[in-house]
Write a structure and sequence with these properties.
Blueprint: H1 2-8, H2 12-27, H3 39-44, H4 52-58, H5 64-75, H6 80-109, H7 114-130, H8 135-138, H9 144-165, H10 170-190, H11 197-207, H12 215-237, H13 240-250, H14 253-270, H15 291-309, H16 315-328, H17 351-363, H18 366-387, H19 393-403, H20 408-420, H21 424-437, H22 443-453
């Protein structure tokens, strides 16, 4: 019986492949969905990524690696399935990496035996991989840069664990440290939010028990040098100074901290309220010193402080909490953003709550396995339902408007989608709603007028006189962003 059980127990490598396969199976039905929202401007309509030659001529530029990916996609035909297939591949790789890393962490923390660590790694990876909030980083083509940056960040962390293991072997440590620094450089060349990777490595090292060796400190130092060099190069050669000035023109850092209390609370709610997932929530920044605002921000700070304070007594819990807030910090702390919050910012942060849940389920053994299976099926089903929203632009924007009825941008974009679908009366109503919600924005009124005159460029011949938006999203005042 023992021998049979040993044969039936999946190896870690096989389980990692199974997790990757589950990701592909769950997301496969969404591969043929069309472009949505920002895809039209940053992929389809951006001449700087229309070809590899155009990409090269545009360098240096912000986010060079993700722009390279878009250029390669154009070279491969430019169909949405090309880009979305890459997103799914990154997500599958990330699920496997999360499993490997979290299994290791459970063993190094000594919170479970070998089988328990396997379950913790698998449960964490399943929640990370199948949660419907991840659709914005996988199904939404433009959001895929989050999955790509995460892949490089996790590879950097994996190399960092090699530095930890190679204590006393200088050459081996140096090799892993170089790999960690290079992967980190790739991550920040995809998305700036990956700048948290060195801090994540330090958090990981402390979670494993730290140590007196200098290798991990040297590795993090090398990554810090990479970050500083990248920041200087970006500041001198790209549009980052303009973007930085524009960002702080939105609101001050102090006001942004208050507003982020609401934003982070909203994001935390999205983890459990799958019914209100929203691709364009357009949250209103409340920067007042109201009792609710101060209390909300205070509770979040208290949660972080409590996690740090309880590090020695409840390290597994503290790690999950600190991991979550660490990965939200680049986009939800001092630097203001026009859009206060987007669900894709939860992509890597989700590993923290998933780890906490996995630690609990692993302790229940048989009951935990049953609950984990039910949860995995529920998450997969919810993700399949969420992916249906991306079926076409009308459904996509109808979903946003239903959940954010005061979002003028969404109403305008719904009007453009309805016009493209040759539904002029419904499109006119959507433009009217957008104009009412944002009286200072001329785009909905311009679009409505062109719609009435049948002059929106790119309209199919069958819609002449009733107007529509071009299939490429151009014409008229266009989609609002």
């Amino acid at each position: 019986m023992i021998a049979l059980a040993a044969r039936l127990r999946p190896s870690p490598a096989r389980l990692a492949l199974v997790l990757a396969g589950v990701v592909v199976a769950v997301w496969a039905p969404s591969l043929a969905a069309p472009f949505q929202f920002d895809d039209w401007s940053v992929i389809v309509g951006d001449p700087r990524v229309a070809s590899l030659a155009a990409w090269w001529d545009a360098m240096p530029a912000t986010r060079p690696l993700v722009k390279l990916l878009y250029a390669l996609g154009h070279e491969a035909g430019g169909a949405p399935i090309v880009y979305r297939g890459v997103n799914v591949a990154w997500h599958a790789l990330n699920a496997a990496l999360v499993f490997v890393l979290m299994r290791r962490l459970a063993r190094r923390m000594r919170i479970a035996d070998a089988d328990g660590a396997l379950r913790i790694g698998a449960f964490t990876a399943l929640v990370f991989a199948l949660h419907p909030v991840q659709t914005e980083s996988v199904t939404y083509v433009s959001g895929g840069s989050q999955a790509m940056a995460t892949g490089f960040a996790l590879l950097s962390l994996l190399a960092f664990t090699g530095v930890i293991d190679a204590q006393g072997r200088a050459a081996r440590q140096a090799g892993f440290a170089l790999a960690a620094a290079l992967a980190f450089a790739a991550a920040i060349a995809v998305r700036e939010s990956a700048i948290a990777t060195p801090l994540a490595c330090l958090l990981w090292w402390r979670a494993e028990g730290g140590g007196r060796g200098r290798g991990p400190i040297v590795a993090v130092g090398a990554m810090s040098v990479v970050a500083a060099g990248a920041a200087v190069a970006a500041w001198l050669t790209t549009a980052y100074p303009y973007l930085w000035a524009t960002s702080f023109g939105v609101r001050s850092w102090a006001a942004n901290l208050l507003a982020q209390g609401d934003a982070v609370a909203w994001l935390m709610g999205q983890l459990v309220r799958w019914d209100r997932l929203n691709a364009d929530p357009a949250l209103v920044a409340d920067t007042s010193l109201s009792v609710l605002n101060v209390a909300r921000a205070g509770l979040l700070v208290a949660l972080i402080v409590a996690a740090a304070w309880q590090w020695n007594a409840r390290r597994a819990v503290a790690f999950g909490v600190l991991w979550f807030f660490l990965w939200l910090a680049p986009t939800h702390s001092l630097v203001p953003r026009l859009d206060l919050a987007n669900e894709r910012h939860l992509y890597l942060a989700l590993v923290g709550p998933a780890w906490l849940l996995a630690v609990v389920l692993a302790r229940w053994r048989t009951q935990g396995l049953v609950l984990a299976a039910v949860l995995a099926v529920s998450l997969a089903f919810a993700t399949a339902l969420r992916n249906r929203v991306y079926a076409n632009e009308v459904v996509f924007w109808q979903d946003v408007v239903a959940k954010s009825p005061r979002n003028a941008r969404a109403s305008n974009n719904l009007g453009m989608a309805l016009a493209a679908a040759c539904q002029p009366l419904a499109a006119a109503r959507a433009f009217d709603d957008a104009a009412r919600l944002a009286p200072d924005d001329p785009r909905p009124r311009i679009n409505a007028e062109l719609l009435a005159r049948g002059e929106l460029p790119g309209v199919p011949a069958s819609c002449a006189g009733s107007a529509g938006a071009g299939a490429d999203g151009t014409g008229g005042a266009g989609r609002a962003r």
